């Protein structure tokens, strides 16, 4: 696994190259594009080398979230602006969520998000260093909600970036294991926030404790240790 530091050149080449978080395209003095790293971390790419990103495990409790296009985020509505809302996603600046950025939204049929206590699951549609981030609550290709939108009820918890990526991996054991024990609904944001919705408060607490225990930046517990932990809880 290759490590990289901010400002280092990255030799990423592909006909359909897609850059993820931590990478930026800049032109050199001759107009040729150079790809550089904007953060310290591990340089990763897909099997066919068409998708590249820099993975770091910064705790969002300590550092501000740096939005990147197409990342999923869990945000809290903090204000109203025009026909939309300002949403806290853990970054240096609040993001903007337009009132029409929902599936099937029209002037007469738009969500009515409360400024206090409303949570949303959204996709970062615009992220630029000189502009506030913008969010959308629908899939970019299908224009359908696909799980995005207001998160009603439930409880938000925070974790590291590395834990978020693990939870988003369908092969990772934790959420399927917990879901086999009791009904469970989650929304995992790449901004270090996870929304949990269970019918019982004790199940919600159990999920939160397991995420904290398995977090590589926390307990770092493996599958066997998590199963032992769950065995000690009154479920």
From TrEMBL:
It comes from the Eukaryota. GO terms for cellular component: cytoplasmic exosome (RNase complex); nuclear exosome (RNase complex). Signal peptide: none annotated. GO terms for biological process: CUT catabolic process; exonucleolytic trimming to generate mature 3'-end of 5.8S rRNA from tricistronic rRNA transcript (SSU-rRNA, 5.8S rRNA, LSU-rRNA); nuclear polyadenylation-dependent rRNA catabolic process; poly(A)-dependent snoRNA 3'-end processing; TRAMP-dependent tRNA surveillance pathway; U4 snRNA 3'-end processing. Residues 17-60 form the Exosome complex exonuclease Rrp40 N-terminal domain. Pfam families: KH_6, Rrp40_N, RRP40_S1. Residues 154-202 form the K Homology domain. Keywords: Cytoplasm, Exosome, RNA-binding. Coiled coil: none annotated. CDD domains: KH-I_Rrp40 (cd22526). The keyword Acyltransferase does not apply. It is found in: Nucleus. One of its GO terms (molecular function) is RNA binding. PANTHER family: EXOSOME COMPLEX COMPONENT RRP40, PNAS-3 RELATED. This is Ribosomal RNA-processing protein 40. It comes from Sanghuangporus baumii.
